[in-house]
Amino acid sequence: MDAYVNAFRTTLPTWFDENGIAGGSFGLEAAEEFAMPAFDVPACNNPVGFLKTITDESSEGYRIKIQHGTTTLAFSFKDGVIVAVDSRATAGGYIASQTVKKVIEINPYLLGTMAGGAADCQYWERDLGRRCRLYELKNKELISVAAASKLLANMVYPYKGMGLSMGTMITGWDKTGPNLFYVDSDGSRLKSNLFSVGSGSTFAYGVLDPGYDYELDVNAAIDLGRRSIYHATYRDAGSGGSVNVYHVKEGGWEFISCDDTSIPDLHICILPFKVYLDQSAPQLASCHKFELSLSIKELLRGRHAKQLILAAWPSLYQIVQGF
Amino acid sequence: MTSSYDRALTVFSPDGHLFQVEYALEAVRKGTCAVGVRGQDCVVLGVEKKSVLKLQDPRTVRKIVMLDDHICMAFAGLSADARVLVNKARIECQSYRLSVEDPVTVEYITRYIAGVQQKYTQSGGVRPFGISTLIIGFDPHDKTPKLYQTDPSGIYSAWKANAIGRSSKTVREFLEKNHKDDLSKEESIKLTVKSLLEVVQTGAKNIEITIMSAGNIIENLKVDEVDKIVKEIEEEKKEADKKKKPGTGASIQ
After folding, report:
1. CATH second-level architecture of A72-265?
2. Where do the Proteasome alpha-type subunits domain residues begin and end (chain B) (predicted)?
3. Is B10 part of the contact surface with chain A (CB cutoff 8 Å)?
4. Where do the CATH 3.60.20.10 domains begin and end in chain A?
5. A30 and B96: CB-CB below 8 Å?
6. Who among B91, B101, B125 is closest to A147 (CB)?
7. Does ipTM top 0.85?
8. From A70, A209, A231, B220, which residue has the greatest number of CB atoms within 10 Å?
9. Which 3 state secondary structure label does DSSP give B90?
């Protein structure tokens, strides 16, 4: 191995200039404060090239296999953010664990998800937690989600191309409301209402996209998140174990549930439809306590629930028509 | 005894003084006066303008500068040192915006400026900045006005009203007597002008006033507007004097 490394070694690269006063840090305090921790890179002329040969699957010198299989998702709606993840870790065809915690609790009001290399995600998100705490102490106020995700993106950007594998979602509720950002080791940082990351993300999107509505109520949203992960675990070999669901609210996050995916309860979705009746026919709901079950095909758009109910149960039509 | 300890910055004297820092404060005391007054919903900065020499372009001599859209600063002391410090602060404001996606809070940038000033009191081969600053502004998404002061030693603190520079002690005592909580905008402006008139004998043309209100609204009063306020103050003073004089009317029998 030494001979291999020596092939790349010439001189140590200097990554940081000496902070001389006369030279002046010229107002880079914020950049330094928010900058990455000094880290060892291979002591060679071209650390990126060296690391690429080791971690890139397609190269000859491929040595370090990163565990990638996972499904994680998060979406924001009127009552906060739902985060749902699976819990399987695979190394090639071998299932290393079915009980991995893929939601990283950065602090009581910030959550991060883990997809890609487990070690990378855990290390960098724990370091993010440290930086967030320092920010809180210095500025006497909680860090915003935008700032926290930016810190993480700036921390990993210098290692771009060196084989880090991390696709994470940073989410929380700060003074601008619920926020959700996607940050990955290629340096992307995106803001949106809905993300799914991992090898099973396409399957999760298939269930998540048709069911998503900003006006969902909390239980419906939790159920949507749970079902999306379940269906991803059903089809994706890299995802499985159990579904962990978190809900981010104004005062912080709350752990909702952990459900084993080998139990097919989640396959058939049963959803109490009382809530939809309350919104569309309040008089009806107050005098008749209905609880209806509809199969997943009929749950496609929550907004059309009233029409769907009326189509499926014509006898109701007579009563509801009056409202 | 003092002379042997005041040469190098990094040497304490036996009784615990850093003489270079104290001499820097002396330099500040030679600079033109600057006053800051915090009202209920606005904050006012007033500075004494040095008389512009005949051939000098007055627009290039500015004592009140913007650090960002929502932060304003006045200083007293060596103008060249101020220029360097202002540049550093401006870079820091933008750097913070880039990293955190939010504008700086007034306290943050004050802490930064004070930190820079302190750094220069603890290094070899440099001298402290010879300026004190008054920093005003509003935090993002906040309507409470803020006023902070820093000095060459690197100390910073928040104030309701303060003065730096020439005769700052007299002006500060005047402010202590006359400042009330929750001043309105007009009252804050008047108090600033009144306190500056204690120092500035030559009137409105040597006074510069800047008012900052919530929502990044910044007004720089023109000379005639300042003149009007000065005249109002003089009128009020005359009225007050007349009342104090023994009356020509009532007599005690």
Report:
1. 4-Layer Sandwich (3.60)
2. 5-27
3. no
4. 72-265
5. yes
6. B101
7. no
8. A70
9. helix
